């Protein structure tokens, strides 16, 4: 894959939109976390080229919780050590500047919060927690990892002995907080999409809601997306590069010290 440089004119147009918006939100997908070393599931190097997606279905989990957790533990060894990158920090800074009101993410890695974003809706849940499927008790994932590494596979609830499940949305489960995200999108006049191929529903409806209400859509992605046709600005380059330039441009216009 050739690495494209971000188009400066596109960055300026994106900054215009954000500066003029009254209520802008960010919508992020796997592409914002690839620079943190987290592979995109659907990309060329993606997880689903190596594993059948069946392993991440709720049915597989319920039928083979032990195999599921062995797979998930292996996966967590990459995801749990990941640190936020330039793009996550830029999103958090745009929130501090009052430019972005909230982040709606498809990611489960918790990197937006780690970068300092405060208003985050995690449509696909979070891998930072697990939940007992019998009583609903919530456990920090660190506690669950200790159980697994201590030989308890699948990990069990201390309270009731029920099986624990990552607090992520598995295939076949409904997304979380979709109504909240939808309401937020419907009151927004701009959405900054970063690192999503916009091919997973219902998540991909979020930028469509903004567009339908007359709002502007900015898309930053390495590859063309399914919804390029609704984009007012499409910036085809690395999320970290684009967000660094965009933040700089916004700060210049606000007269904020760099
Ligand atoms: Zn329980």
Automatic annotation (TrEMBL):
Tree of life domain: Archaea
Ranges of residues in domain Deacetylase sirtuin-type: 4-258
PROSITE patterns reported in the protein's UniProt record: SIRTUIN
Cofactor: Zn(2+)
Principal localisation: cytoplasm
Active site residues of this protein: 124 (proton acceptor)
Keywords of the record: Cytoplasm, Metal-binding, NAD, Transcription, Transcription regulation, Transferase, Zinc
Subcellular location: Cytoplasm
Record EC number: 2.3.1.286
Binding locations of Zn(2+): 132, 135, 157, 160
GO cellular component term, pick one: cytoplasm
Annotated catalysed reactions: N(6)-acetyl-L-lysyl-[protein] + NAD(+) + H2O = 2''-O-acetyl-ADP-D-ribose + nicotinamide + L-lysyl-[protein]
InterPro entries per UniProt: DHS-like_NAD/FAD-binding_dom, NAD-dep_sirtuin_deacylases, Sirtuin, Sirtuin_cat_small_dom_sf, Sirtuin_class_U, Ssirtuin_cat_dom
SUPFAM superfamilies, per the entry: DHS-like NAD/FAD-binding domain (SSF52467)
Cofactor note: Binds 1 zinc ion per subunit.
UniProt xrefs under HAMAP family: Sirtuin_ClassU (MF_01968)
Protein name, UniProt field: NAD-dependent protein deacetylase
Source organism of the structure: Vulcanisaeta distributa (strain DSM 14429 / JCM 11212 / NBRC 100878 / IC-017)
């Amino acid at each position: 894959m050739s690495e494209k440089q971000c188009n400066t004119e596109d960055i300026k147009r994106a900054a215009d939109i954000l500066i003029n918006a009254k209520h802008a939100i960010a919508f992020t997908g796997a592409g914002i976390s690839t620079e943190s070393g987290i592979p995109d599931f659907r990309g060329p190097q993606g997880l689903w080229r190596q594993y059948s997606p069946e392993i991440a279905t709720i049915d597989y989990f319920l039928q083979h919780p032990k195999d599921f957790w062995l797979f998930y533990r292996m996966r967590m060894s990459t995801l749990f050590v990941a640190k936020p990158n330039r793009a996550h920090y830029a999103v958090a800074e745009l929130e501090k500047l009052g430019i972005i009101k909230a982040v709606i993410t498809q990611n489960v890695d918790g990197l937006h919060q780690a970068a300092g974003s405060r208003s985050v809706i995690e449509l696909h849940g979070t891998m930072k927690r697990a939940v007992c499927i019998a009583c609903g008790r919530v456990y920090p994932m660190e506690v669950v990892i200790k159980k697994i590494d201590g030989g308890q596979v699948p990990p069990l609830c201390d309270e009731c002995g029920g099986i624990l499940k990552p607090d992520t949305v598995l295939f076949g489960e409904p997304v979380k907080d979709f109504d909240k995200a939808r309401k937020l999108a419907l009151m927004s006049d701009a959405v900054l999409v970063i690192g999503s191929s916009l091919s997973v529903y219902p998540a991909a409806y979020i930028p469509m809601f903004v567009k339908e209400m007359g709002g502007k859509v900015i898309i930053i992605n390495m590859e063309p997306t399914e919804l390029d046709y609704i984009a007012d600005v499409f910036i085809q380059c690395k999320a970290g590069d684009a967000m660094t330039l965009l933040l700089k441009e916004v700060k210049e216009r606000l007269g904020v010290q760099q």
